[in-house]
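Box 3.1 A note on notation
Throughout this textbook, protein chains are presented in two layers. The first layer is the amino acid sequence; the second is a token string describing backbone geometry. Keep the layers aligned when reading.
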Amino acid sequence: MDHINLHVYIVSENEKLENTLKGIGEVKDVSLSFTTVKDASGIESLQNKFDEIIIARDMNALKPYIGAEGVGLIYIGTPEGFEKECGQIPDNLIDIWSEDISEEYMLSRFKKAVKDAIIAYRAWLYENYLMSTIDSMLDLVWYKDKAGLHWLVNNKFEDTVHKSREQIHGRGHNYIWDVPPEDGGKAEFRCLESEREVFEKKETCIADEQVKTANGVLRHFLTYKSPLYDRSGNVMGTVGIGHDVTDMNNRSLELKILLENLPMATVVCDAEFKPLQANPMFEEAFGVQRDNLSLLEYRKWKEDVFLPLSEERYSSQYHSSHQELEYNVNGEKRYYSLTEQEILDYYENVTGYYCFFRNVTEAKEYEEMILTRANTDEMTKLYNRRYFFEAIMEHKDDEITLLFMDMDNFKKVNDTFGHNMGDDVLIDTANKIKQFFPKGIAARLGGDEFAVALFGEQDEAELRGKSDEFIKSVEEKYASLKVGLSVSVGEVSTKGNLEDIDAFINESDQRMYEKKVEKKKSLGQDIR
């Protein structure tokens, strides 16, 4: 389904243009076909057809398809000529090629047109996936922005509130549900309160919500609301699923239905944490057979199989506790967010617990990836300057030894062998730094400058020996380049009284420069 069949019509007197465009070769997930015709009459009727591109000098070939959905137009001429003939620039005009366009540039523009066609097709496809999925659900589904305005809902939602998607789009809770004016403030407050919980926790939250409509009917929903993130990782809204439990008279049946369909591993316990019911996801995730659930000692089981990653936090406001856990199965680590929600009776006595295990493995791995990218140099995979400074400040009261490193004659590598070779030298040098100083915090400060911070007391003789071995290793590795590539290392230490990190770094830089000057003088090189 992710594959696109893209047909290209070329209106031209000869096939030279087609042969040029076929130079695009194979394109992943795209089947390209070409048809060259002499004039507009040779184009098949494209009514109700999609994923077509028409390339022509003759405006008569393009005019019938101006504004046509799924048909892209490429005009060979000038923007002024197109606007004169057409009177407007339509949305489906992909590009305009000049008469004297080179074959190479034409092919590059055509590649971009194909790429844009792929993007447009996939945008339609994924929207189709989304709408088909949510419209097949028996529960209410909605998407809101941070202000609580609805932007997209499913068919079930439309049927429930008796309003179309067009009427719902951009509107708030009270309008959509026909909440009476006297109840509007309270109803919207309760709705926004559960939204704020999602924004604060940045995780799926479960709420028990009631809505009173204009005709006085009280509807009862169990809602699951999850955060939606923008491309910068900020919460931009929520997606909600509302399970209508208004007409469920058999509470036991209701609980069973909810458990079976909850999108997370769940077990229901009594007041003493003795398991009563579990859903299929719990059985699948942890290998606990539901037929043997009564034999499970929940608290002991939790202590034995999980590694706590956070302290257990109890919220008196929400009558629940929360904890992050690590689960290791066959050497594979999974991460779970555990919420133990109290079940209260009419008098607010605890009669049991809902225990929700939400798999957050992907989110945690994504978080670790973001932290890694934020703290490391992309090329060398060493820490970056910002993280390096923060690490030193965190140890300012400890004994610190700082090695400041600068490549000698590195510019000659770039000038002689090119920047790709220069990049390889930097990456290899970074790997050697990690090899010779494995216990230190190693960073690339910029360009060909590196640094290593070592915390605690150091053996000076051993450290100088390591530095010499490191320098020798670099020199021997690149001796064949015959540009005198080496490394100069400056060393400074503090006994736990660091106050000015910039001065500390500058001192190590100065020590390094003195070593560099000494080395160049001994070799008879220009010290500039």
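The chain has a mean pLDDT of 86. Residues 137-244 form a domain with the Beta-Lactamase fold (CATH 3.30.450.20).
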